[in-house]
User: What shape does this take?
Amino acid sequence: MELLERRRREAKELLRDVKGALWRPAGEGPKRPGDLERVFVLAMRKASRSFISAYGIRAGFNLFLFLFRSVSSRSFNIRHLVQALFSSVPLRFSLLFSTFSYLHTVTFHILRLSPTPGYLKRRISHSLNLLRASTAETSSFLEALEEGLDVLSKEAPFGMPSADFDETDGERKWHAAMAGFVAGAGSIYWISGKGGERRGVVEQLVVRGLEGFWNGTTRRLGFHVPGGDILLFGLCSGQLMHSWLSAPSRNPPSFNHFISGAFQGPSSAVAIQRSLLNGGKMPHDEVQNLLSYKRGVTESNRSSLESILETLGGFDLVWKGGPMVPCSALHPDHDSCTMNLVARFFLVFKHMLPVYGALHFIPQLIFKRRLLFSQPSSSDPPSPISDDLDGEKTPPALEGRRRTMRAGGINWKELTKLLWRGIKGTLRSGSFLGGFVVIFHAIVCLQHKIYPLLKNRTRLRELLVAPQYMWFAGFMTTFSLFLEEKRRRSELALYVLPRGLSVLHSMLRKRAWIPRHVPLGEGVLAGLAMAILCDRSRWGQEDLGGLVKRVMYQFT
Assistant: This one.
């Protein structure tokens, strides 16, 4: 029994050490290596840990989506499984984080160990004074140079002034920002530039950096904008939905693909609306395609579509009804607009269920796994092994978190809480996007209901058929944000903000107000954004969101 218990303790210690090598434990203090050799060892350790962690996160997300789609379609494709786990996407994702960790660690500690500018100035001034004094009485230039070199070579070797490293170990407030700039600019190019993927990542980093800057500024000045996340989401959504219908080239391709899939309506209806907004013509071929809609066409809507085709006579003609897509084209499978809204809600909810399920379950399994599988036991002895490169003892607070597991295995109470939070979050997020699509559909259908009632209101009719009406429909989708948890509303507002900024950038570039191409512009933007994030993570963590704070702690 004693041998079995000893083997069990050794296995637990080994498992704990492996976990420490793969994931940074909570409460771990900053490392302070004392020379360059230890700096590079620490950088390699952090880079390796970041690579494995990031690869596990991205591959786990892909695996979750693969399993959900396999169960939904009742088919298992081994090629898709291999692609989900071993494609270039998770590899590039993990290389991005590992390179960032390596460059950040090396840059930060080299700056920390380097002499300060004041010390360099005093050192150079002292050397010049020695050189001037030693060569004052020499006659020729060569003799003066030889004498000066002899004096400098006999001087004490160049070293770090210990007085400057008493309290902060050489760290200055700007070191974290500089390390973030170098690491962000040097690692962003692992992301592929095809299809705007790298630009999308840079936009997200810029928005997160602006979030930290804004929160820090408002906290210092003591003011707050009530409902700012709701208003920001509405403004960005209005611009994005208007561009999606009137000028889709302005939007990022990823957003167009996402909203087209979430629309859950006939693609021909979108093509008709775009044609009506950009020329006022009703496209004959798209109306013809609606008669063979995959979800079916009701008799009433079929009769309406055939009437439109008869009016067109085989040509794309200017539509007298204005830039309003007919309801028979918008929802050919339902006669009632109300029933269409109910059906669209559940279609969107089902479509986004695997995505939101992965977003709500996987982070909890990763960041809260210790609560699920371990419980601290005060009877277990502390581990003699320390992860500190300088050989210092592990802090008591961290040692308490590293104690071995108590008999009992899974913490069923925490597991039940996690499942409930995941299910509730998935339902609310799915309801949010379903409400988003339903509100947009409803306002577009409402256009047809209100227009006949405004016979003598010419000005109101003009406003109703103006292209900006689609901006209004997109803005009103902000009310769907109330279906989401309050703490996630700002996250969703920050999700659409970079897309809105991308649309603004496209408009300014089209009008030649800004240059079309800036060399290494994406790297510079990523570096500036990471400089702000690293600075806030080091000196103002309360200015960052919860997820951003955990990610920065894990990979810096």
The two ends are 43 Å apart (CA to CA). Residues 383 and 555 are 25 Å apart (CA to CA). Confidence is low (pLDDT under 50) at residues 156-167, 376-408.
